[in-house]
From TrEMBL:
One Pfam family named in its UniProt record: AAA_31
CDD domains: ParAB_family (cd02042)
Gene name as annotated: soj
Record family assignment: To B.subtilis soj.
Protein name: Sporulation initiation inhibitor protein soj
Domain AAA: 3-178
InterPro entries, per database record: AAA_dom (IPR025669), DNA_Partitioning_ATPase (IPR050678), P-loop_NTPase (IPR027417)
C-alpha cells in the first residue's frame, strides 16, 4: 500500500513547494511510482514540474468538485518523472465550492482511493493556510511532513502548528501521524539558525530529520526552468540534500516507528 504524505505549514515561504517537487523527483529517481498533488491555487508545484498551469486541462477543481475520475485528471509527462495533479486559480473556486458539497472533508481521500495501491508515494503540496483544501489533505494523508526555517519564533510557530494538526486530525483523521520536521534554507554559518536547530531537536527529538536542506540558489533557480533541481544541476548541494531526504524517508518507513498526532 502506498503512502500519502501531506507537506504542510500554515506559513508561506518556508519551502513546502520546493520540498514537494524535489522530494517527489528524488523518490521517482529511486524507481518508485510517485504522484504529486498541487493543492495550492498559486500552482507553483505545477509550473515547477514543467506543466503550464494556464494550459492544464484538468486540475484539483475537476477532481474535487466535478468528481472526475482521478485517472482522467492525472498528468503523466512531467520533468520530474512523476505524475501530477495540477493547480491554478480555478482551485480557489474549488476551495469556496467545497463549503457547499456533501462530505466536503473527505473529497480528496475518496478521490485517491482507486490509486492508493498503484503509487508508492503520493505527496500533497498544501496551500499556506488552514482552509478546506488543507483539511482535505489532512483527511487524505497517512502523515504530515512539516518544512520549517530555523528562525526566531520558529519553535513557537511549530508548536502552534502541531496543536492545530492534532485538533484537525482528531476530527477528520485519527490515524494521521507526523512524518517528520524538515529544516529548510539552512545556513550553518548563522548562529541563530544553529541555536533554533538545537532547540528543535530537543523539543521534537527523532521527529526532526537528520537531513538538512541548505540554502542553495539552484533550488530557487530550477523552477524558472520548469524542472526539479536534480535535472537542472544534479551536483548542487540542494538536489543532493533532497535525494538524501528521500533515502531517509524510505529508511524511516522500514523502521515503522509511528507517532500518532492525536
Ligand atoms: P512555500 O511553498 O512554503 O511557500 P517555497 O518552496 O515556494 O515555499 O519557497 C519560497 C521561496 O524560497 C521560493 O522562491 C523558493 O525558490 C525559495 N527556496 C525554497 N527553498 C530554498 C532553499 N533551500 N534554498 C534557496 N531558496 C529556497
Ligand atoms: Mg508553496
Amino acid at each position: 500500500m502506498g503512502k500519502v504524505i501531506a507537506i504542510a505549514n500554515q506559513k508561506g515561504g518556508v519551502g513546502k513547494t520546493t520540498t514537494a517537487v524535489n522530494v517527489a523527483a528524488s523518490m521517482a529517481a529511486t524507481k518508485r511510482k510517485v504522484l504529486l498533488i498541487d493543492l495550492d491555487p498559486q500552482g507553483n508545484a505545477t509550473m515547477g514540474s514543467g506543466v503550464d498551469k494556464y494550459d492544464a486541462p484538468n486540475t484539483c477543481y475537476e477532481l474535487l468538485i466535478e468528481e472526475k475520475p482521478i485517472k482522467d485528471v492525472v498528468i503523466s509527462d512531467t520533468t520530474g518523472k512523476y505524475d501530477l495533479i495540477a493547480a491554478n486559480a480555478d482551485v480557489t473556486a474549488a476551495e469556496i465550492k467545497l463549503m457547499e458539497v456533501f462530505a466536503r472533508e473527505v473529497r480528496l481521500r475518496n478521490a485517491l482511493a482507486p490509486v492508493r495501491n498503484y503509487y508508492d508515494f503520493i505527496f500533497i503540496d498544501c496551500p499556506p493556510s488552514l482552509n478546506q483544501l488543507t483539511v482535505n489533505a489532512m483527511a487524505a494523508a497517512d502523515s504530515v511532513l512539516v518544512p520549517m526555517q530555523c528562525e526566531y519564533y520558529a519553535l513557537e510557530g511549530l508548536t502552534a502548528l502541531m496543536d492545530t494538526i492534532k485538533k484537525l486530525a482528531s476530527v477528520v483523521n485519527p490515524e494521521l501521524t507526523i512524518e517528520g520536521v524538515l529544516r529548510t534554507m539552512y545556513d550553518p554559518r548563522n548562529r541563530l539558525a544553529n541555536d533554533v536547530s538545537e532547540q528543535l531537536k530537543r523539543h521534537f527529538g527523532e521527529q526532526v530529520y537528520r537531513t538538512v536542506i541548505p540554502r542553495n540558489v539552484r533550488l530557487a533557480e530550477a523552477p524558472s526552468f520548469g524542472t526539479p533541481a536534480m535535472y537542472y544541476d544534479r551536483s548542487s548541494t540542494g538536489s543532493k540534500a533532497y535525494l538524501a531526504l528521500a533515502g531517509e524517508i524510505l529508511r524511516r518507513g522500514k523502521k515503522d516507528s509511528v507517532s500518532k498526532v492525536s
